[in-house]
């Protein structure tokens, strides 16, 4: 029953080129070609990771820095392609990997809302209909016609979050983004995410804070050095993860 | 067929992004400048004045209506230069965005070429002024000029895609390209008649230089007021198709590896 899974990552491996010097110029390229040094040093950011997520589940991904958490999210979003293995999705994705990626500092907030909406694949008409809602949620009514470069990072992040969550996506992908923004806004974001979860949205959530994972997620995946160590219900995975950190 | 319809669907979903990116480029180009969009008309006019003075007084030339002759070549060549130069950095320059969200990558290259096309349309106003002032008699054939623009646009998209993907792996391209453009300018009859080229070079310029096809066609339609010759029209129609195939093929083949290099 393949259709049961909304996200299906099978034995996915992601390979990066770790060559000490990057070959950016033609001269270097030919020198290395002649010397047979083009074969680069390989680095596997993910090794044979399998993740099956059913609709409506919320998965937290835990692990130390460099364990492949963000790589896995990028794989699911389609930003990275697996070197081997496969990734299949059945639903619309809203990626919250970096808020406001694609903002242009010279454009005003109003213009950026349409630009960023278009980056996420929304039509202009759709953005027009939701314009007030976005500005309202981000609490930026006074600043709609100010160029974004004059915004504080918190303000830009608020706007980014408001735009990205305007759709009710089937799959919501969240990388540690809520670190910026003040406490009140963090609460607001969490509330919106919980509201989405209640509406049967599937969540993939990366956080260093296992507390947040335990609170928001029903399931968890523990990555270490690019390999899946443990997958299961969030409580037991988090407990095991903490134990390994302390031990 | 399924593959094509899937691509087309993807494009339609992101067509608003293309429009947004183009309107951003056009808006930001002259933001905070006093004369704004007027510069797109003034710029080619002023450069034409300088060149006309140089080539009428310093060098003798035998071209009738030199200002119009020059400008017809210049607006098309400038469009090609602007479009392809911007296309080179369209992927590397948007690296931050491409690492964070999934967006069809060719959209960025396409948007740069399209923004330049908008500028070309502005420069057409400058050309019309010169055409009217110098008393060129336009014939109905002039109305065929959008066809030339379309061919040139497709050619620039193809070349732009090829350069953009190559620049991801070899950043040198953006530096060497300035040199190539300079050489290309001198090997295109923009400010001189093709007849002054030495016999042995002329054949290559008139047959292998894609820009010659468009500029010659454009001059036939505007200045001569006649249909271009069949050789010219056939070549001008085939070159963009070939370039587009090369561009999309190389771009498509390498695009999954972009992320590792930007």
Detailed description of the structure:
The complex is a heterodimer of chains A (247) and B (262). Chain A has eight helices and nine strands. Chain A is an alpha/beta fold and 247 residues long. Chain A has two domains: 1-92 and 171-177 and 196-247, Rossmann fold, CATH 3.40.50; 99-168, Orthogonal Bundle (Helicase, Ruva Protein, domain 3). In chain A, the strands form two sheets. A six-stranded mixed beta sheet of chain A has the order 5-6-7-3-8-9, sandwiched between helices. A three-stranded antiparallel beta sheet of chain A has the order 2-1-4, with helices on one face. Chain A is globular and about 55 Å long. Chain B has one domain. The longest helix of chain B has 28 residues, at 106-133. Chain B is globular and about 55 Å long. The model of chain B has no long low-confidence stretch (mean pLDDT 90).
Short synopsis of the structure:
The complex is a heterodimer of chains A (247) and B (262). Chain A is built from eight helices and nine strands.
């Amino acid at each position: 029953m393949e259709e049961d899974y909304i996200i299906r990552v099978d034995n996915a491996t992601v390979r990066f080129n770790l060559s000490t010097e990057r070959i950016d110029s033609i001269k270097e390229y030919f020198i290395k070609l002649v010397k047979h040094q083009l074969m680069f040093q390989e680095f596997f950011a993910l090794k044979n990771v399998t993740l099956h997520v059913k609709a409506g589940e919320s998965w937290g991904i835990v692990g130390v820095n460099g364990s492949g958490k963000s790589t896995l999210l990028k794989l699911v979003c389609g930003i990275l392609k697996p070197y081997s293995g496969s990734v299949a999705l059945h639903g619309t994705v809203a990626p919250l990997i970096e808020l406001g990626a694609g903002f242009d500092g010279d454009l005003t907030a109003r213009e950026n809302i349409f630009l960023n909406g278009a980056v996420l694949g929304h039509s202009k008409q759709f953005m027009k209909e939701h314009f007030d809602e976005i500005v309202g949620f981000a609490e930026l009514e006074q600043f709609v016609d100010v160029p974004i470069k004059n915004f504080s990072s918190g303000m830009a992040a608020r706007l980014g979050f408001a735009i990205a969550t305007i759709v009710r996506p089937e799959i919501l992908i969240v990388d540690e983004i809520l670190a910026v923004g003040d406490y009140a806004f963090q609460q607001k974001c969490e509330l919106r995410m919980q509201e989405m979860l209640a509406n049967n949205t599937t969540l993939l959530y990366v956080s260093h804070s296992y507390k947040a994972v335990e609170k928001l997620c029903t399931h968890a995946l523990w990555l270490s050095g690019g390999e899946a160590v443990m997958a299961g219900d969030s409580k037991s995975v988090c407990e095991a993860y903490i134990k390994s950190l302390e031990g | 067929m399924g593959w094509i319809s899937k691509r087309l669907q993807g494009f339609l979903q992101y067509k608003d992004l293309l429009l947004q990116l183009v309107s951003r480029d056009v808006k930001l180009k002259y933001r905070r400048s006093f004369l704004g969009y007027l510069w797109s008309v003034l710029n080619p006019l002023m450069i034409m004045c300088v060149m006309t003075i140089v080539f009428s007084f310093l060098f003798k030339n035998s071209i009738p209506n030199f200002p119009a002759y020059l400008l017809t070549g210049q607006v098309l060549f400038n469009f090609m230069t602007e479009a392809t130069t911007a296309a080179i950095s369209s992927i590397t320059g948007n690296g931050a965005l491409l690492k964070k969200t999934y967006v069809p990558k060719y959209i960025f290259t396409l948007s740069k070429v399209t923004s330049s096309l908008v500028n070309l349309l502005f420069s057409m106003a400058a050309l019309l002024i010169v055409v009217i002032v110098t008393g060129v008699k336009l014939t109905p054939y002039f109305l065929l000029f959008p066809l030339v623009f379309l061919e040139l646009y497709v050619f620039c998209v193809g070349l732009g895609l090829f350069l953009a993907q190559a620049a991801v792996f070899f950043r040198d391209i953006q530096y060497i390209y300035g040199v190539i453009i300079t050489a290309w300018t001198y090997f295109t009859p923009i400010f001189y008649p093709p007849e002054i080229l030495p016999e042995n070079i002329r054949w290559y310029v008139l047959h292998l230089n894609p820009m010659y096809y468009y500029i010659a066609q454009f001059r036939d339609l505007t200045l001569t007021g006649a249909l271009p010759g069949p050789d010219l029209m056939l070549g001008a129609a085939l070159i963009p198709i070939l370039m587009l195939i090369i561009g999309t093929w190389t771009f498509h083949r390498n695009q999954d590896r972009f992320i590792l290099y930007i």
